[in-house]
Amino acid sequence: MMRHSVDSAHNGAEPNWAADHQRPASGDAGATTALSTLSIFAANGHARELRAGTGVNDTKPILDQARPKTPRVSVVIPTLNEAKNLPHVFAKLPSDIYEIVLVDGNSTDDTVEVARELYPDVRIVGQSGRGKGNALKAGFNACRGDIIVMLDADGSADGTEIPRFVEALLDGADFAKGSRFVEGGGSADITRLRRMGNAFLSGLVNLLYRTSYSDLCYGYNAFWASCLPVISVDCDGFEVETLINIRVAKAGLVVTEVPSFELDRIHGESNLRTFRDGFRVLKTIVGELRREPIGASAVSATAG
After folding, report:
1. What pLDDT score does 288 carry?
2. Whole-angstrom Cα distance, residue 273 to residue 182?
3. Which of 43, 174, 192, 274 is found 20 to 30 A from 67 (Cα to Cα)?
4. Residue 7 lies in a domain
């Protein structure tokens, strides 16, 4: 079951989170894109439409907790030898974000130096291990904002879309999930093989966890920082997006899909390996079936 709302396309103006929430900005030429709010079903198979943050055990609604109308937005960017891409990535970030948390995986180029030159207040965080999952965990732990945005460093994620994600959260979502496959989304980068693999894995998760995800493996997401206990990243690789999406669904969080257009990587080559990482995603999907969900009470305990 899907519920739909409408999100105006970003018009290039400087975002004001509170103003955008009260009065959605008009997009160029009146263009609009759909936000698809997922009605997640509990992992035990009992259908239930989620309202304002009802958890798996019908504990205290998550959104009863006070959330700021003008939230501080933290952007987490995992990097490994992305010095040439960072100028393009940073140039598209809204000027009033609260902080950039750049997680560096021991780059051998000038990634850290370029980041500091572009954004002197950037917070540099090192990894304890390797891989995107490990990097995101380190970045999440370092964030001080109310909202956390996950952004790739290769230029494929458009930073001007961040206000869409923030608006979805201000409109009542706990987790704003980017999707290339809803109206208004798209990709200039995904191969036919990866598209087929993503469709298969999305369908499998939707079947096993009674969800309605359209784009399981896309990494452009945002969420309230109070949801970190539910997400609780404990994997190292590209399976991290799947792990997060499954855990927020099992916990009964309100998930809104936000249309996003994936651009081509600007410089360098991706570290993603279709078959190796696809197997890791499949292993995660099966493994999470045995894991007890963390309900809304964990989020309520850390909110407000």
Report:
1. 92
2. 25
3. 43
4. no
164 lies in a domain? yes
**CA dist 122 → 49, 127, 171, 216, 241 (Å):** 40, 16, 29, 30, 24
- By residue range, what is the domain housing residue 126? 71-302
Rounded to whole angstroms, how far apart are CA atoms 89 and 100? 11
What does the pLDDT average to over 211-217? 94
Asked whether the predicted pLDDT for residue 42 surpasses 50, the reply is no
Q: Are 153 and 93 in contact (CB under 8 A)?
A: no
Sign of the alpha-carbon dihedral angle for 233, 247, 89, 19: negative
Yes or no: say if 276 and 239 are a contact pair by the CB < 8 Å rule.
no
Question: Could you tell me the pTM of the whole model?
Answer: 0.78
**C-beta separation of 189 from 265 below 8 A:** yes
Residues 139-162 pLDDT 10s: 999 999 999 999 999 999 999 999
User: Average pLDDT of 125-137?
Assistant: 92
Walk across the sheet containing 99-104 and list its strands: 2-8, 32-38, 255-259, 175-179, 221-224, 147-150, 73-79, 99-104, 123-126
Q: Quickly tell me which residue has 């979502």 as its tokens.
A: 173
Query: What is the distance, to the nearest Å, from the Cα of residue 215 to the centroid of all Cα atoms in its chain?
Result: 12
Is 165 inside any structural domain?
yes
